[in-house]
Design brief:
- The structure is a single chain.
- This protein has a five-stranded mixed sheet with strand order 1-2-5-4-3.
- By secondary structure, it is an alpha/beta fold.
- The longest helix has 20 residues.
- Helix content is 46%, strand content 13%.
- The protein has one domain.
- The protein is globular and about 45 Å long.
- Helix 5 packs antiparallel against helix 6.
Length: 250
């Protein structure tokens, strides 16, 4: 079967095909958010999804490369040779699509622990992790902000998963990692600022603002770990994030 032009259909094909090979792929990024959030199609939030991003649970990058090559993708051999323990890249020149696979963990500006959380959703990461993979970006662009706004508009903040933003999970992860907490706080400010310039109307603006306030409260309320407190003493004097290689990010 040829690579499908529709990104959502192609994501389903990859996840289900991987399961048949005993590989656990889960979609993240804007394409994953669009599967959960109807607001992603709002005229002020809509965007294209030229690339697909996945997390692979198993530490089997070799099997993942064989699998995706069999689906019609070309591996980026130099990149994969150097980074294959943590990240793999593949390309479809015909559709100009890139597939980015994080191996066994998500690690960009910050690491987001996943553990058994990949079992909570059949196709994508859970909503809490989808949100955090956007908020952990130290240099958010407008596409990232629009993705975050879509999530905030369509999902309440609560203490569980399913179609709910698990504030307890978000607060817990940030309360154990001062660097993640710091970046997420800055990202919430960025979302607040940029979203005010989006043409979505006052009612949706208020809803986003309320969700951002609730998220800030969840971050502040979560009991901080000893590790968090020790790193907080250093503060911004030492860089608290990484700047990963961005081959391309759509």
């Amino acid at each position: 079967m040829n690579i499908l032009p529709d990104p959502q259909e192609e994501a389903h094909r990859i996840v289900r095909g991987a399961a048949q090979q005993d590989l656990t792929f889960r979609l993240l990024g804007g394409a994953a958010i669009s599967l959960h959030s109807p607001s992603a199609s709002h005229r002020a939030l809509a965007r294209s999804y030229p690339d697909l991003d996945f997390v692979l649970r198993e530490k089997r990058g070799d099997r993942a490369e064989t699998f995706l090559t069999g689906l019609g993708y070309s591996p980026d051999k130099p990149f994969n040779l150097y980074n294959g323990q943590h990240r793999l890249l593949f390309h479809d020149p015909e559709l100009d699509r890139q597939v980015d696979v994080f191996v066994a963990e998500f690690r960009m500006c910050h690491s987001i622990p996943l553990g058994n959380r990949l079992e909570l959703e059949p196709i994508t990461l859970p909503l809490a992790e989808l949100l955090l993979t956007k908020l952990q970006i130290i240099q958010m662009n407008e596409k990232d902000v629009r993705d975050v706004c879509a999530l905030l508009l369509d999902h309440p903040l609560g203490d569980q998963d399913a179609e709910t933003l698990n504030g307890r999970r978000i607060g817990s992860l940030c309360a154990d990692d001062w660097g993640l907490w710091r970046t997420v706080g800055l990202s919430l400010e960025k979302v607040q600022e940029v979203s005010q310039g989006l043409d979505i109307g006052e009612e949706l603006q208020r809803k986003i603002g309320g969700q951002l306030t609730s998220l800030r409260q969840a971050l502040e309320a979560a009991p901080k770990s000893t590790r968090w407190k020790m790193r907080a003493r250093v503060g911004d004097r030492v860089p608290w994030y990484e700047l990963p290689e961005e081959v391309r990010r759509g």
